[in-house]
Amino acid sequence: MTPDHVAHGQTDPHTTGPRPKKMVEGVIQGLPIGRDKTVVPPDQVYELAAIGCSDTEIAHFFGVKQDTLRYNFAEELTKGRSFMKIRLRRAMYKNACQLNNAAVQIFLAKQASILGMSDGGVNADAEALPWNEEYSEEESNEVNTVAE
User: Fold this and answer.
1) SS in 3 state form for 28-74?
2) Confidence (pTM)
3) Is residue 107 classed exposed, middle or buried when 0-12, 13-18 and 19+ CB atoms within 10 A define those classes?
4) Which residues contact 135 (CB under 8 A, 6 or more apart)?
5) Which residue has the higher pLDDT, 25 or 132?
């Protein structure tokens, strides 16, 4: 095998495959935060918050502390999470109305309080039926006799 047939950077002439990549330096646009001035792009913070990443996950991704992330990117975190909630509500509404998904319809009716329905049942302190203290056992027996 001639040296022309060897992939660039490979020492074994019998090995084939992709050429190994070399690290290059690039420029990242963002805010320098923390003591080591780590550059964090605000649009990436927004995108990570919009897909549901926690502050801890985002901070670990960029290699900064959570408090530093929250201090410098509070607006991006809030907007990203709001966008995520809106997107989820749209998807749930589409599943409920256009695709007629009964489970989503019930969830929206009860849990999301859109229709004011509840899954809580009866309040234990409230009386389930109107109760008349004057109603005696004799009247109760009369009702049971008539019903039989």
Assistant:
1) CCCEEECCCCEEECHHHHHHHHHCCCCHHHHHHHHCCCHHHHHHHCH
2) 0.61
3) middle
4) none
5) 25
